Amino acid sequence: MDYRFREIRDEYELKQNDVADKMKISRGAYANIEAETANIKLKDFLTYCNEMNFTMDYVANLDSLNRMLFIKKIDFIDKNILSERLTILEKENHKQAKDIAFELGIHKSTYSEYKNPKSKNMIQTLMLKQLAQNYDYSIDWLVGRSEQKYIKKQK
Predict the structure, then answer these.
(1) Pick from 44, 70, 96: which residue ends a domain?
(2) CA-CA distance, 97 to 57, in Å (whole number)?
(3) What is the C-alpha separation between 16 and 70, in angstroms, rounded?
């Protein structure tokens, strides 16, 4: 998975309890996320990035810089925005929903649920990271935290 949770916590000299409290989850749940033995829910990932003041792309180790200048803090993932942006990703890359579902290793109906703004099912953070890596899109853009669509590569 390769996230920067531990690196960030160590840099700020925080204990796991400190970060877990900010995220409003148990220390054990945070420890599993940090050890990458459990996937982080997208809503918890958003909370972490907001509370710690980092871009999702930086924490997900997709960008070498924390580009918070381009980020607007949002309190929740708007599924309408996420759906629109997943559709843009598909169109710009000449993919159909079934192709994206195949790449993610999920059934087309599951991917359709993730894209449906009325569905309560939220796409997994790991899947958004995979899409971002495959197509160089920003996770922050996909969820509506940024208008900067692509990840800028450090030269």
Answers:
(1) 70
(2) 23
(3) 28
pLDDT tens digits, one per residue of 18-76 = 999 999 999 999 999 999 999 999 999 999 999 999 999 999 999 999 988 889 999 99
CA distances from 10 to 13, 34, 45, 96, 138 (A): 5, 11, 18, 42, 25
Q: For the full predicted model, state whether its pTM sits above 0.85.
A: yes
- Residue 82 CA to residue 115 CA, distance in Å, equals 7
Residues 51 and 98 in one domain: no
pLDDT tens-digit map of 87-117: 999 999 999 999 999 999 999 999 999 999 9
Range of the domain at 110: 79-142
Is residue 142 exposed (0-12), middle (13-18) or buried (19+ Cβ within 10 Å)? buried
The CATH number assigned to the domain holding 95 equals: 1.10.260.40
Residues 66, 96, single domain; the answer is: no
92 and 149 in contact (C-beta within 8 Å)?
Answer: no
The answer to whether 20 touches 66, Cβ cutoff 8 Å, is: no
